[in-house]
Amino acid sequence: MLPFIRPDLADFSAYKPHPGSDTTQLPVPNQKLDRLDTNESPYDLPPELKQKLACTYQQRIETNRYPDGAHQELKDAIAQYVNSSVNLLSSQFKAENISIGNGSDELIRSLLIASCLGGEGSILIAQPTFSMYAILAKTLGIPVVEVNRNEENFEIDLQAAQTAIEKTKPIPIKTVFVVHPNSPTANPLNAAELRWLKGLPENILVVVDEAYFEFSQNSLVNELIEKPNWVILRTFSKAFRLAAMRVGYCIAHPELITVLEKIRLPYNLPSFSIASALIAIQNKDILLASIPQTLVERDNLILALSVHPMLKVWKSSANFVYLQLEKNLINSHQNLLTFITQELKESGTLIRKLNKGLRITIGTPEENTCTISRLRTVLANLKSEP
Ligand SMILES: *Cc1c(COP(=O)(O)O)cnc(C)c1O
Q1: How far apart are CA 239 and CA 324, in angstroms?
Q2: Residues contacting residue 162 through CB under 8 Å, at least 6 positions apart
């Protein structure tokens, strides 16, 4: 280790983008895979919108100039989208309530810097959840306190969470991260969790990540009106089909937004990303039109997999499903999950393996049909393994 590097950085590993997407070692090298491991939309931008974007690039973007560092036009458009997405008056949330990041990952880091950096606070998360909160906290030297979830319905262990809030020393919890609906378990916050979050004191920042809002249609944006200590994160990476462009945003009290704007790099969004997000919002009806089909496909996938005797599949409020192996198979659980994930990959479907289960993104109807048949085949082979 280089002598000038912080020693704590040696201990953890970087986030693996598309883990397992290396296809060079497959029986058929570089074979095309159904990429159902990162919860993106299976659909690219339609050609007419790509064409529009290309025109913007050709005619409006000057590559020698810095991008619009204030994001004014995009902030206005996002504020309007946020208001209409939850049927609020168009005057409710304005540009002053919005900060835009290079992906919501950047905003997660900015929120950590704003609330916890320099020994000011620890964060609380309930596992399993989105991995970036802990990864980014640790790179900033911010302690991470973890509590568990109920094994049946994935409700946060609220008693443990409350104890953590009251007892964590010497660096008390300053920020709580929740995803609504959670990844990888796909459950929305329930009434008890909401009651607990609403009861947290105002000196604790509550981050509600609504990355999957367009699929769940269940938002807590209304809570922000009363709560200066809440912030909602959203992204263009999922339903809006712009994962390649890296645009995320948050909605919060103007004073928190002012701080986030101080923290971010001045030109954090490339001009092309700003233009893409604007076009996506202007054409949201076209882009979001594929969602009802995705939800039908999701429910069909859940139905088809639930009847399998070796699988336990949960309901989902998002564009992915979470499943586990039935308890009687648990002996060599990790090995089995790894085996299944690897076999599926070799048959052409990439999914996400987690500690105790598997997460599968909803793809195109063709991809989902393949998921079902390939998973059945893998499980049938498993039975005949010694
Ligand atoms: C996919 C995802 C995001 C999106 O991150 P970006 O940096 O905006 O691409 C954020 N939060 C959760 C929980 C996600 O699953």
Answers
A1: 25
A2: 196
Does the beta carbon of 129 lie inside 6 Å of ligand 1?
Answer: no
Q: Is the pLDDT of residue 385 over 80?
A: no
Residues with Cβ within 8 Å of 40's Cβ and at least 6 positions away in sequence, in order, are 237, 238, 241, 243, 361
Q: Which amino acid is at 192?
A: A
Q: For the chain, give me the number of helices (H) and strands (E)?
A: 13, 13
Spatial CB neighbours of 231, under 8 Å, sequence gap ≥ 6: 111, 205, 206, 207, 208, 224, 250, 251, 252, 256
| DSSP assignment of 279-302 | HHHHTHHHHHTTHHHHHHHHHHHH
Q: What is the mean pLDDT of the chain?
A: 95
Residues 245, 44: Cα–Cα separation, whole Å: 12
Amino acid at 157: D
Q: Are 18 and 35 in contact (CB under 8 A)?
A: yes
Mean pLDDT of 154-174: 97
Sheet containing 358-361, strands listed edge to edge, beginning at the edge strand earlier in sequence: 311-313, 320-325, 358-361, 352-353
Nearest protein Cα to ligand 1, atom 10: 211
Residues in contact with 58: Cβ distance below 8 Å, sequence separation at least 6, in sequence order: none
Question: Per residue in 176-233, pLDDT tens?
Answer: 999 999 999 999 999 999 999 999 999 999 999 999 999 999 999 999 999 999 999 9
| Cα–Cα dist 101/114, whole Å | 14
Q: Is the CB of 177 under 6 A from ligand 1?
A: no
Enter the tokens of residue 81. Answer: 């989208």
Whether the pTM exceeds 0.85: the reply is yes
Distance 282 CA to ligand 1 centre (A): 22
| Alpha carbon distance 186, 299 (integer Å) | 13
209, 212, 361, best to mutate for ligand 1 pocket (most atoms within 8 Å of CB): 209
Six-digit token string for 104: 């919501």
